[in-house]
Amino acid sequence: MNKDLVRDFNEQINQEFYSAYLYLKISVYYRERGLAGFGSWFLAQAREEEEHAVKLLSYLAESGQRVELQEIAAPDVEFDGLEAPLLAALEHEKAVTARINNLYDFAFTYKDFQTADFLTWFVREQREEMETAAGLLQKMKLFGADAMGLYQLDKELAERK
Ligand code: FEO
Predict the structure, then answer these.
(1) Domains parsed from the chain with CATH numbers
(2) Residue 49 CA, ligand 1 centroid: distance in Å
(3) What is the pTM of this model?
(4) What is residue 145's DSSP assignment?
(5) How confident is residue 160, by pLDDT bands cut at 50, 70 and 90?
């Protein structure tokens, strides 16, 4: 693999762990406010992000490349109200999508078609992640201001395994 591509893969591994950290922060935020369903939903999301990191890491290792685990930054955000974490999650997923697209583009530039093929899973996953994040924010805007609506939404999110 091209050295710059390996560097960017390693950065992306770090970013996926950062995503997990951000979602853990969101999970804690909701739990502290009595919304256990939101809390468990974001806990599951954090675990999914760790899986993304491991998927990238495994690809590097299996390709005989050096995996470099870097320091994970603390999420530098404070939330002002119940809607704010969902907006932060959506903005974050947009940024991750841009990064994945760059990686994909990079793989093509270096004619590394195997890596590009591997990354198509992430390209598709990002589409799903952004849709989910936008959907959650929309539901919160529609139903979150009403106590019963919020209660139902929390119940719905608690069902995620
Ligand atoms: Fe790993 Fe939410 O993208």
Answers:
(1) 3-158 (1.20.1260.10)
(2) 5
(3) 0.95
(4) T
(5) confident
